Amino acid sequence: MLTPFSSPPGPEDGELYSGTSYNFLGSEPIISRNSSLSPLRTEYAIPWLNEPSFVHADVIRASPEGAEGGDDRVYFFFTEVSVEYEFVSKLMIPRVARVCKGGLRTLQKKWTTFLKARLLCSRPDGSLFFNVLRAVFVLRAPDLKEPVFYGVFTPQLNNVGLSAVCAYNLSTAEAVFSRGKYMQSATVEQSHTKWVRYSGPVPSPRPGACIDREARAANFSSSLSLPDKTLQFVKDHPLMDDSVTPTGNRPRLVKSGVNYTQIVVDRTQALDGTMYDVMFVSTDRGALHKAISLESDVHIIEETQLFQDLEPVQTLLLSSQKGRRFIYAGSNSGVVQAPVTFCGKHSTCEDCVLARDPYCAWSPAEPVPILPLFCRGLIQDMSGEVSACPDESKGSSRQHFLKHGGTAALKCSPKSNLARVVWRCQSGVLRAEGPKYSLVGGTLLIFNLSEGDSGVYRCLSEERVGNKTVSRVMAEHVLEVRTAPRAPGAFSSPATRTEGAGLPPDVSAGPVRGSFPRTPAGRLTTPSGPAPTSASCEPKVIIHTVPQVQSEKTLYLKSSNDRLLLSLLLLFFVLCLCLFSYNCYKGLLPGPCLRVRSALLLGKKQPASDFSDCEQSVKETLVEPGSFSQQNGGQPRPAPDTGYETEQDTTASRAPTDREDSQRIDELPVRDRPFDVKCELKFADSDADGD
C-alpha cells in the first residue's frame, strides 16, 4: 500500500515518503523515502512494524522560529498487531509513527529517528476501545496554532456497526515522543517476549529526537555525529509506553449503526464569531454525514445519500474554488461533487435556525437562507433558539367535509428527521390505540368517521435541542363530519370512496386562510376560537409508529372473522368424528364401544377361513371313537366352540369324517397347506390305535 503524505513537497524536496511492502508477497512492510539522494527505509523487524495496515501519511513542517530549528517531521498513521498486549487472537492497535526528514543526517541507509506510539480512542469510562484506524485527516487553518489530526475508528469486534471520530493535537503527539517513557522487550519464562516500561537511564542526546537547536548546541549537527549508544537504543526501543490521548479525553463523535470510511474537516466562522469544525464523514453505504461539535454534544446536521446503489465511499476530498467549497466523493463506480451546504432546503426561519448549520443564516428582508458572508441583519443561533425568528401571525389551515363512516387523511410533513410528529385535537394529545387511528409517516388516518371526530387537528413538530424541546405547528386541519340523508328503502354506503392507497379525497376541501396561534419554543397553546361544530373530538393517543394501512374493508373483515371461526369449529368436529370411526373399526376403543361395533357388524357374514376345514378335521379327530377319551370310558368331548358358525353346522348338522377331510386336503394346492395336517393326523391315529 503506497501512502504518500498529503502536503505537497517544496521545491527543494522532491522526496516521496511511503508506507508499503518491500516484496511482492507483502510480507515485509517498510517505511521508505525515495529521493535523489540515497534511498532510506526501516528495518524489517517485528518491534518496528508488525503486520501494519497503513492509512495515512503527512509531513509537518517546522517553523524556523521554533525550538525545533526548522527540521520537518513525517507522521505515519497505521494499525498493526500489538506486541505489548496479549489476547486470544491478534489484537489490533492504532499507531502514529514519527520520523525526521533529516537530509544527509542518516546512518547506513537506516532510520535513526523512528518512534511510534499508540493512538487512544475510547469512551470516557473506558468501557469500549476503538482500536482499528480507518481514516485520518489533518486540519490546518490560519487561526489554529497547530495542526489537528482527525481519525475515524471502529472496534475490532464490530458486531453492531459502531464508529467514532477522535481529534488529536500535534503538541500532544510531540510531547509523547519528546518526553515520554520507552518500552523494552523482556523474556518471560524463557519462551515469551513481553514489552514492559523501560526504567533505566536514557542516553543523551535523546534517542529518536530530531536534530534541533539544543542538539546543535551540543555539537551534534547531524545523525552521523550521534554516539553509538543513542543509535543502538533507538533501534532496540522504537515503541513508546505513553499513549497519544484525544482532545477532551473523549471522542468528538460516536455513532451506532454505521461504519465510517473517510473523513474531511472544514473550519468555518458563524455569525457570532465562533469558529466551528464541521466534519464530513462518509459511510460504507454511500452516505455522507455532516456533523458539528457543540459545547454539550455533537449534532449531525444532515445526511446526504451520494451513491444510490449504496456503494462504500473510498475517497473523500475537500476543495475550495473561488470562495465556494465542494466535497468530492469517490467510489468504485464514479465520483460525486456536492456543496458543503444545502441552505435552499430551509423554507422557514425556524427550520434554518434549528438546523444549526454554521454555513446558513436567515434574512428577514428576503426569506431565503443565504451564506453568512459578513452580512448584517441575518438570523442564526447555534444553540437552536428560535425566539429571534419573526412571529408568523398568519397561518394556513385546510378544511375537510367528509361523510359519516368515511376515512380522513390529514397530511403533515416534518422538515427534520430528528423531529417527532405529535397530533393534537383541541387540547388533547392523540395516540394510536386500536383500529380508529393510524399514523403513516406524518399523515394521520382516521377510520370510520363519526360526528364526534369533528374538530381542529394540529400537527406539531417536536425536536430536542440541548436541554429543551422546541415545538412548532406544521399543519392545521379543520374536520367536519356530516351525516348524509338516506332515501327510504335505498341502500347507501357509509364510507367515502378512496383513491390510490386507500386515502379518501375531501368532499369539499380547500386552503382556508385564517389565524391560529403560533407555538413558541417549549410551550403549547390551545386555539382561542371554538371548533367549527358543536361536537368536539375526544382525546386519544397517537404514537409515532408506521403500522400497516387499513382499507375500507375493515367492517367486511370483521364479519368474515365469525364465519371463519364457525368453519374451523365444523372442520374440527368432522375430524373428531372420523377419528372416532377409525378407532371403532380397528377395535381400539373400550368394551362398551366394541359391543356397539359388534352390533353394527352382526348382520355381516364373516369370510370363511382358508384353514377352517383343516381345523374342523383336527377337532373331529380328537373326539372320534378309539381316542383317549373313549378308551378311558368317558364320553366323547365335543370340540370347543370357536365362535364361528360354519356351513356344516347349519346345513348337514354333522361332523365330517376323516375320509372327507382327507379328500378336501388333497384337493388343496400345496402352497395353501399351512400344516401337513394329513400326515400328522395319520400318525396320531396310529398311535392312538396302538395304545
Folded structure, characterized:
The chain is α+β, with helices and mostly antiparallel strands. The chain has 4 domains: about 180 residues, Methylamine Dehydrogenase, Chain H (7 Propeller); about 80 residues, no CATH class; about 160 residues, Immunoglobulins (Immunoglobulin-like), CATH 2.60.40.10; about 80 residues, no CATH class. The chain has 11 helices and 32 strands. A 6-stranded mixed beta sheet has the order 27-26-30-31-24-32, with no helix packed on it. A 5-stranded mixed beta sheet has the order 4-5-6-7-13, covered by helices on one side. Strand 16 and strand 17 form a beta hairpin. The longest helix is centred in the C-terminal third of the chain and has 33 residues. The relative contact order is 0.06. The N terminus and C terminus are likely disordered. This is Semaphorin-4D.
Number of strands: 32
Q: How confident overall, as mean pLDDT?
A: 73
Query: What is the rounded Rg?
Result: 47 Å
Briefly note the CATH topology name of the largest domain.
Methylamine Dehydrogenase, Chain H
Q: How helical, in percent, are the residues?
A: 10-25%
Helix tally equals 11
Q: What is the CATH C level class of the largest domain, in words?
A: Mainly Beta
Major sheet summary line:
6 strands, mixed
In the CATH hierarchy, the architecture of the largest domain is 7 Propeller
GO biological process, one term: ossification involved in bone maturation
Domain Ig-like: 390-471
Transmembrane segments: 564-585
InterPro entries: Ig-like_dom (IPR007110), Ig-like_dom_sf (IPR036179), Ig-like_fold (IPR013783), Ig_sub (IPR003599), Immunoglobulin_dom (IPR013151), Plexin_repeat (IPR002165), PSI (IPR016201), Semap_dom (IPR001627)
